[in-house]
Design a protein that fits this description.
The complex is a heterodimer of chains A (about 110) and B (about 140).
Chain A lengths: L1 H23 L6 H23 L6 H17 L33
Chain B lengths: L1 E2 L5 E2 L6 H13 L3 H14 L1 H6 L5 H30 L3 H15 L3 H25 L1
Helix pairs in contact in B: 2-4, 2-5, 4-5
The chains are: A mainly alpha (about 110), B mainly alpha (about 140).
């Protein structure tokens, strides 16, 4: 049971990180970036639903993989503090910067 | 595998954690708990598409958008999956998740769908009216 609870919690955490990035995203974000995060969100959603819908059971390797993904998402969240990172924005939509050290100015609540 | 007195091999009982979770869900939500869980989670992941495309002011506004998309999927998915089964022979249970994902991904884009439906109905009504005039 503890494996299952851990699995659900980790899937929920991954899904929440995707949700937070989706909130900050808009149509100016590169399509491949948006699709990648949606694929991750889909995997997390199916991971939450699978034990209830199909009786699927997680194993330790799945949990380690999930925990690693959650860790990556948590660590890279710092790069989203000021909005979508510049590299993820379509080239034609990137804000102009006067100096290399300037922030993008794309602040979100 | 364990062996009975007669020497037959019977499978070992598996852990009941998932079974008990499923049973609990069915007890709380009824026999349709599984399909509805699938619809909700598929719609939630589909709704990430319109959420990532729109400029959202806050997480609360994003959550509201997800809620609207998911509720729309909960209402429409059963009917659309039934239509798919009736006209294309796709099993209802297999169509639930893809249909819910599609409905969720449609997000706020229902206006073109309703416009297309209205124009199709208008064209049909015009054709029927033309037949009546022609006779």
């Amino acid at each position: 049971m503890s494996l299952l609870v851990l699995h659900e919690a980790l899937c929920a955490a991954v899904w929440y990180t995707v949700f937070c990035r989706a909130v900050r995203s808009d149509h100016t974000v590169r399509l491949d970036v948006r699709l990648s995060f949606i694929a991750l969100g889909l995997a997390a959603s199916l991971g939450m639903a699978a034990p209830l819908a199909w009786g699927w059971q997680p194993d330790w390797y799945t949990l380690v993989l999930l925990a690693s993904i959650t860790l990556v998402q948590g660590v890279t969240a710092a790069h989203w503090q000021a909005g979508v990172p510049d590299q993820f924005i379509k080239p034609e939509c990137r804000p102009r910067r006067r100096r290399a050290t300037d922030l993008t100015g794309r602040h979100h609540v | 595998m364990s062996t009975t007195k007669q020497g037959e091999n019977v499978p070992e009982p598996t852990t009941t954690s998932t079974a008990s979770l499923s049973v609990l869900a069915v007890a709380l939500l009824g026999p349709l708990a599984g399909p509805y869980v699938l619809i909700v989670f598929a719609a939630l992941s589909g709704a990430l598409w319109p959420l990532s495309a729109s400029a959202t002011a806050s997480r609360l506004a994003g959550g509201w958008l997800l809620l609207r998309c998911t509720l729309m999927a909960v209402v429409l998915t059963g009917m659309l999956a039934g239509l798919l089964q009736q006209y294309y022979g796709i099993p209802h249970s297999e169509a639930l998740a893809p249909v819910a994902f599609f409905v969720g991904a449609l997000g706020n884009g229902w206006r073109p769908v309703f416009d297309a439906l209205a124009s199709a109905l208008g064209a049909m009504a015009g054709r029927l009216g033309g037949r009546k005039d022609g006779k």
